[in-house]
Amino acid sequence: MKIPVLSKENMKFCAGCNACVGMCEQKCIKKQGRGQPPIFDLNNCIGCGKCVEACFRDKLIEMIEIVFNQVWHFEYCDGCGKCVDACKRQCIIKKETKKGWCDGFNIFFDVERCNGCELCMQTCPKQAISIIGAPYELSNMERLGMHD
User: Fold this and answer.
1) What is the DSSP code (8-state) at residue 83?
2) Which of 29, 104, 106, 133 could be disulfide-bonded to 24 (CB atoms 3.0-4.6 Å)?
3) What is the DSSP letter of 141?
């Protein structure tokens, strides 16, 4: 999936015009104070790139390809389905099976749709999901366009 990133370096040059805020139909970009760079919340981002097109200052926002690797720890999972309900992008599929690894069900992740928001991980009461590895090294704060 491609996600928008306003790097720390590019934040220095952002005029805070908020043109990108108005272009985001998913309402993933929030204004801060006047002259401050926006905050990106990628939970609903669809990777359309309209924020990149809206940036007047030499395309400070970049679209990067990123893949998150989800790990399902089936030995901890009780099949409650809270992760499925929490995923706004519908990346998690729970399939019932006659003979599965975990009492008749398996969990599958659609890595192409995942934006690494970690809602599934945070919602799981058994800590049965891990999200690891990203080819582009960004902390969660940087990925969301927030300051340290």
Assistant:
1) H
2) 29
3) H
Structure token digits, residue 106: 């398996």
118 lies in which domain range?
Answer: 69-132
In a domain, 148, yes or no: no
Residues 79 and 59 in one domain: no
CATH of the domain at 43: 3.30.70.20
Same-domain pairing of 88 and 54: no
Q: Greatest CA separation found in the chain?
A: 58
Same-domain status, 18 and 50: yes
| CA atoms of 16 and 37, how far apart (whole Å) | 5
Q: CA angle, 91 as apex, 54 and 20 as ends, to 5°?
A: 10
CA 106 to chain centre: 23
- Lookup: tokens for 92: 């998690």
Co-location of 9 and 60 in the same domain: yes
Rounded to two decimals, what is the model's pTM?
Answer: 0.53
Give me the sign of the Cα torsion angle 2, 72, 140, 24.
Answer: positive
User: What is the per-residue pLDDT across 37-88, written as a single tens digit (0 to 9) for each?
Assistant: 888 877 778 788 898 888 877 678 888 776 666 777 878 888 888 999 998 8
